[in-house]
């Protein structure tokens, strides 16, 4: 028996940063966890582009600085320290108005002994852009700390408003050198082996859509239909998915812990629950709960039970059950899978054999 509110569910983690933390939180709740980082972070501490942008920022003496991520803002200051530019950078930042894209960059700003003027409540650059353009940016010298990819539209709009802008590429997102874990995840989603996929950044969502779309497009169909749950940390992360018509769930607070809680609440709510032979049977991804006790099942047995639960109390023919098996096979394979299913459930009373016709779940009130 597996303990935990997520027992019987399989949840995928696509993040690279804090991947192990997320996996541990989910496993602690009983989930089976699959990790497949859709992107990887390339630090630019030794990059000429970041060094040049830092020097340009110091020389520009900016009026306004936009800090988009705590991770990136800290990395920028650390890189500047390494080049002997730390004091100069903090000095010019201290004289500038600093705008933060949410509380995480606020924390990094304050840790550096600086103070933000205001932070976007929605944690999006759209809110920052709307407010800055409403205030007017003509003639302002603005520094934008990027977060993994060029902020082309954001920067273009500021320049279109008359601002002089320096972009600071602290790090960038790229596809992993080895894409096999992401492709394998897409294959597992296609096979119905993943109950939920978590996303913590828009670049990761974009990368997953790209790789899955090229290797196993049926995985995107399962996400679009809601058969596999897509869970995002916030609306910015969800953007690439919702843009493809994929429904998502997200927490009210855009934090990792809140995302885990959302998955923890949502998956059990989506499970099928039946009264079978005097017991409460709850269908989950790779297991079934009978009166709260978890029984982990082999793929073939789970496929049989899922098919029976889809039509509770109705006889399901062997031909239909053959088609439901992961690799097809024949009537004998169905009989073997049913026998193993009965053993796993600890009782033969839950599944009724209907001679020459097939099998059905023995409901307390069988369907007519």
UniProtKB/TrEMBL annotation:
Start and end residues of each OmpR/PhoB-type domain: 271-363
Enzyme class (EC, first level): lyase
EC number: 4.2.1.75
Entry keyword set: DNA-binding, Lyase
Lineage: Bacteria, Bacillati, Actinomycetota, Actinomycetes, Micromonosporales
DNA-binding region: 271-363
GO molecular function: uroporphyrinogen-III synthase activity
Listed InterPro entries: 4pyrrol_syn_uPrphyn_synt_sf, 4pyrrol_synth_uPrphyn_synth, OmpR/PhoB-type_DNA-bd, Sig_transdc_resp-reg_C-effctor, UROS/Hem4, WH-like_DNA-bd_sf
Cross-referenced PANTHER family: BLR5956 PROTEIN (PTHR40082:SF1)
Protein name, as recorded: Uroporphyrinogen-III synthase
């Amino acid at each position: 028996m597996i303990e935990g509110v997520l027992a019987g569910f399989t949840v995928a983690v696509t993040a690279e940063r804090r991947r192990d933390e997320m996996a541990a939180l989910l496993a602690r709740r009983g989930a089976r966890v699959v990790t497949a980082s859709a992107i990887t972070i390339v630090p630019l501490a030794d990059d000429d582009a970041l060094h040049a942008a830092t020097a340009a920022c110091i020389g520009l003496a900016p009026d306004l600085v936009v800090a988009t991520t705590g991770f990136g803002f800290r990395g920028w200051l650390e890189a500047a320290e390494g080049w002997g530019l730390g004091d100069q950078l903090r000095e010019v930042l201290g004289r500038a108005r600093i705008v933060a894209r949410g509380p995480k960059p606020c924390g990094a700003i304050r840790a550096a002994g600086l103070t933000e003027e205001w932070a976007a409540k929605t944690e999006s650059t759209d809110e920052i852009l709307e407010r800055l353009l409403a205030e007017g940016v003509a003639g302002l010298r603005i520094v934008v700390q990027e977060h993994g990819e060029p902020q082309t539209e954001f920067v273009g709009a500021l320049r279109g408003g008359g601002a002089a802008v320096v972009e600071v590429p602290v790090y960038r997102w790229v596809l992993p050198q080895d894409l096999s874990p992401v492709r394998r995840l897409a294959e597992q989603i296609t096979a119905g082996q993943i109950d939920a996929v978590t996303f913590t950044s828009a670049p990761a969502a974009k990368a997953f859509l790209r790789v899955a779309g090229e290797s196993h497009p049926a995985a995107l169909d399962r996400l679009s239909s809601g058969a596999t749950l897509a869970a995002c940390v916030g609306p910015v992360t969800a953007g690439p998915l919702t843009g493809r018509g994929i429904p998502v769930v997200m927490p009210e607070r855009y934090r990792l812990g809140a995302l885990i809680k959302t998955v923890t609440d949502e998956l059990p709510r989506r499970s099928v629950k039946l009264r079978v032979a005097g017991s409460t049977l709850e269908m989950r991804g790779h297991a079934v709960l009978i009166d709260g006790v978890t029984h982990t099942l082999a793929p073939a047995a789970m496929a049989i039970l899922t098919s029976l639960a889809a039509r509770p109390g109705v006889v399901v023919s062997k031909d239909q059950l053959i088609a439901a098996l992961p690799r097809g096979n024949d009537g004998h394979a169905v009989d073997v899978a049913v026998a193993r299913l009965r053993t796993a459930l600890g009782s033969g009373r839950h599944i009724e054999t209907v001679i020459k016709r097939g099998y059905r779940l023995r409901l307390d009130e069988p369907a007519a």
